[in-house]
């Protein structure tokens, strides 16, 4: 069936057929929570990469599965498949015609569209076929202590055993052309070359999103350019941070604990601007850590704020340097951390992509923190981990960090990215 002739009736039939999918398993479920997280982290870098093996319960779409035993949902690393149709209103909009449907959606936003498509349905069917008869999956991290994202979802690669071989679903999904290599929140540390090769293979073979005859988003070159610029920015910070113990990725699970230990000293932090709040006094530029937790950059001088570029950088990753200080939050009745910005040069922004062609639109903010989905990263930000040198942090620190991660972030969307 050609996706060009996809109709509302066919879409409903596909949705009904998909509803019968469910892996045949009746496993013993072992709950994975902050206690098991602490135990795995204490074993060192290599062991801490493995989250564990879990019974597969459901395939939701091309980049979302559910397993039994986790205390939160997952975001599959390196993936961003197109959306599936979930509401009758979406089918009705699509039934107006593909070109009109896509154009009307794009007219509503300056960001890349995030709408249901036939390719999103195809990605879901690919996942269902890939996981058919799979009873358990092995989940692994990209970094020993990069645990959760902005929405508190576990960041994971999914491995399965099929025909005597081990497959990384995340890479295979890209190889099949069901998703681009999603580097919006940073490149894969473990499988970057695999993702790049898989994407090149899919593109050369015109599979999935690279097939011009299929109905899918049409601006992947622009998206990849933007994501890779962000990936470069994050990677450059991480390389420099390896030689400086006062350089801190804000979304690392132990970032707050590390900042607490450096009160009164200069630090350099990497984070995404999630919100900007005007007050009767200073302006607060919030670097997002969790959905309900941020590190405020405090601007008392409006001119410094304007010249720093922070106002135009909402949703972007920035480097911010300054002295970490404490202040007493009278509303929360507790001490909180902040950085006071007195010079524009204390903020360094991502390198912006070139201006779009007139007929194309490049997002001003591709964060899913400002979009309904993921990131702030709002995507949705990656909940990263601490430096490898901190891998053997004591149980007290691990427990505190995990408790914070659990309490200050509700369930989402994505995700990852």
Features:
single chain, 417 residues, alpha+beta, five-stranded mixed barrel, 12 helices, 29% helix, globular
Q: Could you explain how this protein is built, in words?
A:
About 30% of the residues lie in helices and about 20% in strands. With about 425 residues, it is α+β, with helices and mostly antiparallel strands. The strands form two sheets. Strands 1, 2, 3, 4, 5 and 6 form a six-stranded mixed beta sheet that branches. Helix 2 packs antiparallel against helix 12 (about 395-405) and helix 7 packs parallel to helix 8. The protein is globular, with a radius of gyration of 22 Å.
Which helices and strands, and how do they pair?
Elements: H1 8-18, H2 34-41, H3 45-48, E1 50-61, E2 64-67, E3 74-76, H4 88-94, H5 98-107, H6 118-130, E4 136-140, E5 154-162, E6 165-168, H7 169-175, H8 192-204, H9 220-241, E7 247-249, H10 255-260, E8 266-278, E9 283-290, E10 293-299, H11 302-308, E11 317-329, E12 334-341, E13 347-349, H12 395-407
Parallel strand pairs: 3-5, 7-8, 10-12
Antiparallel strand pairs: 1-2, 1-4, 4-5, 5-6, 8-9, 8-11, 9-10, 11-12, 11-13
Short description:
The protein is an alpha+beta fold and 417 residues long.
Q: What characteristic shape results from the CA principal axes?
A: globular
Radius of gyration: 22 Å
The overall strand count is: 13
Mean pLDDT: 79
Helical amount: 25-40%
List SSEs in N-to-C order: HHHEEEHHHEEEHHHEHEEEHEEEH
Largest sheet: 6 strands, mixed
Strand content: 15-25%
What is the rounded distance between the termini? 31 Å
Unreliable segments of 5+ consecutive residues: 1-5, 7-25, 353-417
Tally the helices: what do you get?
12
Structural class: alpha+beta
């Amino acid at each position: 069936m050609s996706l060009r002739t996809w109709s509302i009736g066919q879409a409903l039939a596909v949705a009904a057929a998909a509803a019968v999918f469910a892996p045949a398993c009746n496993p013993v479920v072992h709950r994975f929570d902050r206690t098991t997280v602490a135990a795995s982290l204490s074993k060192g870098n290599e062991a801490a990469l493995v989250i564990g093996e879990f019974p597969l319960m459901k395939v939701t779409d091309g980049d979302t599965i559910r397993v039994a035993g986790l205390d939160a949902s997952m975001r599959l690393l390196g993936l961003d498949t197109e959306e599936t149709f979930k509401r009758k209103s979406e089918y009705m909009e699509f039934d107006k015609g593909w070109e009109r449907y896509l154009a009307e959606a794009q007219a509503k936003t300056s960001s890349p569209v995030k709408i249901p498509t036939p390719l999103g349905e195809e990605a879901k069917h690919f996942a269902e076929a890939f996981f058919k008869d799979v009873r358990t999956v092995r989940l692994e991290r990209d970094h020993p202590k990069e645990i959760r994202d902005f929405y508190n979802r576990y960041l994971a690669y999914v491995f399965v055993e099929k025909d005597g071989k081990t497959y990384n679903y995340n890479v295979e999904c890209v190889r099949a052309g069901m998703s681009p290599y999603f580097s919006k929140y940073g490149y894969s540390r473990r499988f970057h070359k695999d993702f790049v090769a898989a994407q090149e293979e899919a593109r050369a073979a015109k599979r999935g999103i690279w097939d011009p005859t299929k109905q899918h988003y049409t601006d992947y070159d622009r998206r990849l350019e933007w994501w890779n610029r962000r990936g470069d920015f994050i990677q450059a910070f991480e390389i420099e941070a390896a030689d400086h113990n006062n350089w801190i990725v804000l979304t690392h699970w132990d970032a707050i604990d590390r900042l607490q230990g450096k009160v009164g000293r200069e630090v350099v932090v990497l984070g995404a601007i999630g919100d900007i709040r005007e007050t009767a006094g200073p302006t607060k530029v919030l670097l997002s850590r969790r959905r309900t937790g941020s590190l405020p950059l405090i601007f008392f001088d409006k001119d410094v704020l304007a010249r720093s570029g922070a106002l135009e950088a909402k949703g972007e990753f920035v480097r911010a340097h300054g002295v970490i200080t404490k202040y007493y939050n009278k509303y929360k009745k507790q001490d909180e951390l902040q950085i006071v910005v007195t010079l524009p040069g204390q903020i360094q922004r991502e390198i912006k992509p070139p201006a779009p062609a007139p007929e194309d639109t490049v997002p001003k903010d591709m964060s899913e923190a400002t979009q309904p989905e993921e990131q702030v990263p709002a995507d949705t930000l990656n909940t990263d981990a601490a430096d490898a040198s901190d891998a053997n942090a004591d149980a007290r620190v691990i427990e505190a960090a995990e408790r914070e991660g659990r309490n200050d972030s509700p369930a989402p969307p994505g995700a990852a990215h």
